[in-house]
Amino acid sequence: MMHFVDVCALQDIPNGKHRAFVIEGVSILIFRINNEVHALENRCTHLDFPLQGGRQIGSTIVCRKHGARFDICTGKAVVGPAVDPVRRFEARIHHGRVEVQPGKTVVRHLFRKAI
Ligand code: FES
């Protein structure tokens, strides 16, 4: 059965920012956009560079390596060179705490991009 893992207090993530956590062995970025949270794997699907520290522009994050941009809400690559979506996880706010379902990938890689 899938379970939510307590990650941090909502106030630990400033609005419009993200923080990285290792949750059950997976590096996951938690993004806060107003009073919503979203969780993506901390890995660009272009060449596996960490997305942590990338510039957040609205509801997108830019990879620092080659500039691919991903939709934080869906994980979809919206600007290349990345094509595949980033894995996305269920995330929620529960009593002022951020919780993630690390075992439940919302969007899966259907195929790997040839390098
Ligand atoms: S590794 Fe992210 S755009 Fe190339």
Automatic annotation (TrEMBL):
- Keywords noted in UniProt: 2Fe-2S, Iron, Iron-sulfur, Metal-binding
Q: Does the keyword Manganese apply?
A: no
| InterPro entries assigned to the protein according to its UniProt record, in alphabetical order | Rieske_2Fe-2S (IPR017941), Rieske_2Fe-2S_sf (IPR036922)
Q: Which SUPFAM superfamilies match?
A: ISP domain
Q: Which residues are in the Rieske domain?
A: 5-100
Q: Does Electron transport appear among the keywords? A: no
| Protein name, entry field | Rieske (2Fe-2S) protein
Its lineage reads: Bacteria, Pseudomonadati, Pseudomonadota, Alphaproteobacteria, Sphingomonadales
